[in-house]
Amino acid sequence: MAKVYNWQLGREMDYRFPNGKAKRQFAAVFNINRCIACQTCSMACKSTWTFSPGQELMWWNNVETKPYGGYPNHWDVNILALQEKANPGAQVWDAARRSGRAAPYGVFEGKTIFETADQVNNMVTGYIPPEADWKAPNIHEDTATAAPAAGVTLPEHGGWFFYLQRICNHCSYPACLAACPRNAIYKREEDGIVLIDQNRCRGYRKCVEACPYKKSMYRPSTRTSEKCIACYPRIEGSDPLTEGLPMETRCMAACVGKIRLQGLVRVDDRGEWIEDRQNPLYYLVHVAKVALPLYPQFGTQPNVYYIPPRWVPRPYLRQMFGPGVDDAIAAYTHPERETVAVLQLFRASQRIVFSYKIEPGPKTAEITVGGQKREIFNDTIIGYDSNGKEVVRVTVDEPTAERPGQLNSI
Ligand code: SF4
Ligand code: SF4
Ligand code: SF4
């Protein structure tokens, strides 16, 4: 076992391999507050990658309704229960020990899924879901915890649900990779994308068992496991549309609710993000601290980040996203002027935005949110590609067009 640094946990942890030499890491921010569960992302992925025989139950992208829904059923409750059983009453954070980028959420004092495993028979604590659990990817859709009461207001709703959008996290410390006895899973140095070599895989399903997010899936027709490939041809820029430059993945580009922003961040040999102040993902995760990893306590250092839903009881969200939740919701509810501008970049371009610049605009409104006054400025944000060329320019106020009074011939 090697000792590696997990900045999301604020401490070193045990992992099967030492850190790789990734230069860039695939990452994304999903804004839960905006998702309408239209499943366009799920269908975009399925119609591109998993429409063949044997892939019928395979949804590399899925959107489930929390707290009751899950794909496979109860995946997170099951792994949380296994971890609690292995380390009863001690799966806790010390949020007071926050410090900069190396420990932004404090220190996790419990055990990760690598640390609760015996390291002889299993490299990772996990389980294989029975086939029935994969059969209803949208079970309990729109099911709230209680009937909505009249006059419900923030900060938390009495009856609540929310949509959780999920793909493979292309983790910095992938559990699937650590568990594979064939060494068939690898993490690419150039972009941190985690792939399964179909020629080496023998379908032992150790990755299916190990992935806490259950994003490695078994295909009976080929007797191998498969998973999200981060649409790597698009990331590599092979699509003519972007003229050889990195392009966002199918599930991101298709998002109707404009909840997704995907990119590539620079990382060092310890897997920590190198300071890159003008990268929109760096800004959202490390400066505004408005976006958080999903179940960081599992220990895989996932690379999809979520802006938590504002209306959900905080204890539930703290378990799901760690102790940074309260600050993240405060930062989203009363956003900095810069955050408002950066949020406009979501789904503004299919090309990956590597940096941005903001041109200040005039004050256009004064509003009150939760008793606090806020000013709105119509700033312009400009996004640049990997060569520093402008790819998108959007304003905070969306331009509107008025239809002429006279109807057309239809
Ligand atoms: S396409 Fe976007 S809005 Fe629709 S379900 Fe997927 S993440 Fe949500
Ligand atoms: S989410 Fe699961 S399948 Fe994806 S890299 Fe992490 S451990 Fe592997
Ligand atoms: S990144 Fe590509 S392969 Fe992965 S879930 Fe999204 S569409 Fe599917």
Radius of gyration: 21 Å
* Strand percent estimate: 15-25%
Give the structural class: alpha+beta
Main sheet record: 4 strands, mixed
Give the ligands present: iron/sulfur cluster
Average pLDDT over all residues: 95
Question: Given the C-alpha coordinates, what overall shape results?
Answer: globular
Offer a concise description of the structure.
The protein is built from ten helices and 19 strands.
Describe the structure.
This protein has 410 residues and is α+β, with helices and mostly antiparallel strands. It is built from ten helices and 19 strands. The chain has one domain: 2-Layer Sandwich (Alpha-Beta Plaits). It has helices at residues 40-49, 75-86, 175-179, 206-210, 232-235, 250-253, 280-287, 314-321, 325-333, 337-343, and strands spanning 2-6, 11-15, 24-31, 62-66, 93-94, 107-108, 162-166, 185-187, 194-196, 216-219, 224-227, 260-266, 292-293, 304-307, 355-359, 363-369, 372-377, 380-384, 390-395. The strands form eight sheets. It has a four-stranded mixed beta sheet. It has a three-stranded antiparallel beta sheet with strand order 15-18-19, covered by helices on one side. A hairpin with a 6-residue loop joins strand 8 and strand 9 (194-196). The mean pLDDT is 95. Bound molecules: iron/sulfur cluster (3 copies). One iron/sulfur cluster (SF4) binds next to helix 1.
